[in-house]
Amino acid sequence: MTSVSILGSTGSIGLQTLEVIDAEPERFSVAALSAASSVDALIAQAKKYRPQLVIVADPRDVARVQEALPGGCEVACGVDGLVAASEMADVTVNAIVGFAGLPVTIATLKAGKRLALANKESLITAAPVVERVRRTEGASLIPVDSEHCAIFQCLGASHGANPQVARLVLTASGGPFRGRDAASLEGVTVQDALQHPTWSMGPKITVDSSTLMNKGLEVIEAHALFGTPYDQIDVVVHPQSIVHSMVEYTDGTTIAQLSLPDMRLPIGYALSYPDRLETPFGGLDLLASSTLTFEPPDRSTFRCLDLAYAAGRTGGAAPAWLSAANEVAVEEFLAGDLEWAQISEIVSRTLELYVEDPLDNVEAVIEADAHSRSAARSVVAGIRRSNE
Length: 388
Ligand code: NAD
Ligand code: MG
Hints:
By secondary structure, the protein is of the alpha/beta class.
């Protein structure tokens, strides 16, 4: 039996992780669950799965959760609780959204445990630190992001630069605004941006897909995970989301991973690795599938992709700045306080304020995140003033 801590258990990845566990209950048990705001949903999950530990983000929720749960289930709050949950299970699924997932990534690897990583922001912002803790004896990092799970499988699960790899090709659905130009995107609403054509995901990553920032973050994620130079990481738009990514080798061979778009497959892969689930989530009927098409991304309309490549190539704290500025901009957009096109503008103008900054410990990562957020907020304030 594999024990699993699911942090961010009430979100899209968290709920699908519980569906994987429901499908193969003889294989997995739940050690810990956590949520930030959906406390009632968290209580219902804890009653069903009986974890040893439940973590909330707001101390005011602790008493209510304690009262609602049977004895034997401890209730904790904040980072200390997340760290305890990361240390206690065989596998920790980091399904928290945004920079708030950092303590889970670091604590799981430091404890020499397996990290099933959905929270790409923690890897992107803290890559040099994660690279170090990843070497802890017993630690392993299995990507849950579908593209990286695909590449991991196509590489034969190897980690580290492989001279026989010519190129990684990340596929992108293109998001809800594929094919549109800048003029036609003026005034698009939050609702428009949340209409993803192939995946059903949380709001932040769905907006990131609409700007192609998600793909930009994934380019940096691929570099951090597999050690592949940026010049050898490409992006192609593949609207059907059947080919989840590819590895091209030096002899001209390309190996791809295909399935229907179903996150339960990469989640299940990360939970059961090196074995595979017996449940075919996303199993493909090739004869029923439509044509598979590939096209280049529109880099001038969706500027976030190149902003991410540039931040990745700059290295140091630049990816942390990119990710934090994007979080600020997406929050403002989701709150209805910003135009969609201003997301890339805020990220770009914030990165102009970046001064080279090495990243060699967690404190430096937290500081870089705070600097970038405050720079992004002043950029937002400047834009507001000029709108008035
Ligand atoms: P979501 O918004 O649906 O869920 C987020 C979860 O994190 C919730 O349980 C929420 O309560 C918790 N949370 C939010 N803020 C928190 C905080 N400050 N502290 C602690 N917990 C907090 O998000 P999601 O779509 O499930 O995405 C989660 C992560 O997985 C993101 O990093 C995303 O990029 C990545 N990811 C998601 C998908 C997908 O299909 N949803 C695919 C690939 C990667
Ligand atoms: Mg992805």
